[in-house]
Design a protein that fits this description.
Length: about 80
């Protein structure tokens, strides 16, 4: 459900959920766990689990995009 302003812009009545934000980011491109944390999504792993359970094909591999101090994963929507 959306609200239409006088300018013609339509805005949703509810805020996007964390799951919506994770899915939107994955549709934008491969995303590292650090990037999810920068987006203030600390429970991104749980949201990815839920998306996979819904049938979304999400793969993961070792992140080589950044210099991490520990092993990080890049998630990709296929």
């Amino acid at each position: 459900m959306t609200v239409q302003w006088a300018s013609g812009q339509q805005l949703p009545l509810t805020r996007p959920t964390q799951r919506d934000r994770v899915l939107a980011q994955l549709r934008h491109g491969p995303t590292c766990g650090t990037e999810f944390l920068e987006m203030h999504l600390p429970r991104f792993g749980g949201r990815i689990f839920e998306l996979r359970k819904e049938g979304h094909a999400i793969t993961n591999e070792v992140c080589r995009k950044h210099n991490h101090y520990s092993r990080q994963t890049v998630y990709r929507l296929t």
